[in-house]
């Protein structure tokens, strides 16, 4: 995987802006990796249970916004993993969202 600090920082900013209105309650974390040598970004989202279609669509919208920030030829691969809390997640190198899962926080709806 090859990418510069500048590319990583740019991707972080792009992703966090894209995710601003697209995080839903079951999403536990979102991480990314970038490899400029093959023009590829991987987007990995963990959820605490299956996501409803509307929540998946929200994440797809964020991925589309990320994709549109890069020139033609770049690919964004999406990975959606279901892993209930408190099981540990395997994040990609760039974590752009992590839900607070501390014991004292009530996440019941």
Keywords for this structure?
alpha+beta; 28% helix; single chain
Task: Summarize the structure in words.
- The protein has helices at 5-19, 53-68; strands at residues 27-35, 40-47, 75-82, 94-98.
- With 109 residues, it is of the alpha+beta class.
- The protein has a single domain (5-98), classed as Alpha-Beta Plaits, CATH 3.30.70.
- The protein has a four-stranded mixed beta sheet.
- Helix 2 (53-68) links the parallel strand 2 (40-47) and strand 3.
- Helix 1 (5-19) packs across helix 2 (53-68).
- It is globular and about 40 Å long.
- The termini are far apart.
Distance between the termini: 40 Å
Q: Estimate the global geometry from the Cα principal axes.
A: globular
Q: Please tell me the overall pLDDT.
A: 94
CATH superfamily: Cation efflux protein, cytoplasmic domain
* CATH-defined fold name: Alpha-Beta Plaits
Rg is 14 Å
CATH architecture: 2-Layer Sandwich
Count every helix, treating DSSP H or I runs of 4 or more residues as helices.
2
Strands across the major sheet, in which order?
Answer: 3-2-1-4
Strand content: 25-35%
Main beta sheet: 4 strands, mixed
Percent helix, as a range, is 25-40%
Which spans have pLDDT < 50 for at least 5 consecutive residues?
Answer: none
- The ordered string of helix (H) and strand (E) elements is HEEHEE
Structural class: alpha+beta
Count of domain modules: 1
CATH class: Alpha Beta
Number of strands: 4
């Amino acid at each position: 995987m090859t990418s510069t600090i500048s590319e990583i920082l740019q991707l972080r900013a792009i992703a966090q802006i894209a995710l601003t209105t697209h995080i839903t309650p079951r999403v536990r974390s979102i991480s990314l990796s970038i490899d400029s040598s093959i023009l590829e970004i991987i987007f990995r989202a963990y959820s605490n249970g299956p996501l409803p279609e509307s929540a998946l669509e929200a994440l797809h919208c964020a991925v589309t916004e990320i994709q549109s920030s890069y020139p033609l030829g770049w690919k964004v691969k999406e990975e959606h993993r279901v892993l209930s809390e408190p099981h540990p997640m395997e994040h990609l190198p760039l974590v752009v969202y992590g839900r607070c899962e501390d014991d004292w926080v009530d996440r019941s709806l």
